[in-house]
Amino acid sequence: MARKKIALIGGGQIGGVLAQLAALRELGDVVLFDIVEGLPQGKCLDIAEASPVDGFDVCLKGTNTYEDIAGSDVVIVTAGLPRKPGMSRDDLIDVNSKIMTSVAEGIKAHAPNSFVIVISNPLDAMVTLCQKVTGFPHNRVIGQAGVLDSARFKAFIAWELGVSVKDVNAMTLGGHGDDMVPLVRYASVNGIPVLELLERKYNDKAKAKEVMDAMVKRTRGAGGEVVALLKTGSAFYSPASSAIAMAESILRDQKRVLPTCAYLNGEFGVKGFYVGVPCVLGAGGVEQILQFELDAEEQAMMDKSVAAVKELVAILK
Ligand code: A3D
């Protein structure tokens, strides 16, 4: 059976880590594309020269031409500017929508059967634009944000409770912005509600709520926290890990349930927009959107987040 092929559009900070992770996990052969000459070639050569040490058998090719992405099963897009301190993700919309349009045209022309995972910001708007320009079915064009936002939420809970990150289950819904919706009520440690564990830890309901509120706030601002520390760009290890989990679920038909920026057709009361919701990702891309009950407060937060996405998408038109 032929190896799978993964194209990475954008060979910057996230693109480089994506290439390395895809190779380490032997997801398939990797093509790294960038407009900067030498950058993707240099990164691919560097990663490939580690293959005898790490023991992976995949080919890595850096390129500046779209012809090389032909036959890709999955394309992950990170092309575009990252934010700097003081910038919101939304400030990137003008420059990144021009980049996304050219990238989507390249994917449409050269990898017409691929599944596309967008990471470029502002995420929800860039996924919308990518689907529009490629014209691919909605189940084949998705965005990565929720896996990362949820991972941050899970990490904060694990650190607070002193438990393994592996035993924490938690999820965020909505757009990839400050209005995202971390689901407190459904956060658990192996099924035990996190709020109950906090109440027992502090023996004080008000204190437990305060600690949870602080973790929710930190989750919402977690991208900005990294930007403020790095000063020159935004997070890149964790977004790459998150997108690789999504790509792996599709390429290996794992059917994992991952928070995904997916096109909604009435689910969660949203019609005709890309928003973060739990999806089953498998060989068919988005195979299912898992709906469940939101209480009035959660629905109100979701509505607010969706309103922010709609505002952003309106700028594209
Ligand atoms: P960076 O290291 O600047 O890499 C971006 C790369 O895109 C650079 O190498 C550019 O040369 C390249 N590029 C620019 N224009 C084009 C083009 N037309 N075609 C192909 N490549 C091009 O940024 P990064 O890797 O740190 O971040 C990439 C994007 O991901 C940014 O928009 C970030 O805001 C975004 N991001 C998203 C998340 C999410 O969780 C959604 C997290 C972190 C960053």
From TrEMBL:
Ligand binding (substrate): 83, 89, 121, 152
In this chain the Lactate/malate dehydrogenase C-terminal domain maps to 148-311
Q: Which GO terms describe its biological process?
A: lactate metabolic process; tricarboxylic acid cycle
Which E.C. number(s) belong to this protein? 1.1.1.37
Q: Which residues form the active site?
A: 176 (proton acceptor)
From the UniProt record, which GO molecular function terms apply? L-lactate dehydrogenase (NAD+) activity; L-malate dehydrogenase (NAD+) activity
Sorted alphabetically, which keywords does the UniProt record give? NAD, Oxidoreductase, Tricarboxylic acid cycle
Q: Which domain of life is it from?
A: Bacteria
Reactions it catalyzes: (S)-malate + NAD(+) = oxaloacetate + NADH + H(+)
Q: Which residues form the Lactate/malate dehydrogenase N-terminal domain?
A: 5-143
Give the matching Gene3D superfamilies. Answer: Lactate dehydrogenase/glycoside hydrolase, family 4, C-terminal (3.90.110.10), NAD(P)-binding Rossmann-like Domain (3.40.50.720)
* Group of enzyme by EC: oxidoreductase
Q: Which residues bind NAD(+)?
A: 10-15, 34, 96, 119-121
Q: Which InterPro entries match?
A: L-lactate/malate_DH, Lactate/malate_DH_C, Lactate/malate_DH_N, Lactate_DH/Glyco_Ohase_4_C, Malate_DH_type3, NAD(P)-bd_dom_sf
Q: What does this protein do?
A: Catalyzes the reversible oxidation of malate to oxaloacetate.
NCBIfam families named among the record's database cross-references:
MalateDH_bact, PRK06223.1
Family to which the UniProt record says this protein belongs = Belongs to the LDH/MDH superfamily. MDH type 3 family.
Q: What is this protein called?
A: Malate dehydrogenase
Which organism is the protein's source? Geomesophilobacter sediminis
Q: What is the lineage of its organism?
A: Bacteria, Pseudomonadati, Thermodesulfobacteriota, Desulfuromonadia, Geobacterales
Protein encoded by which gene: mdh
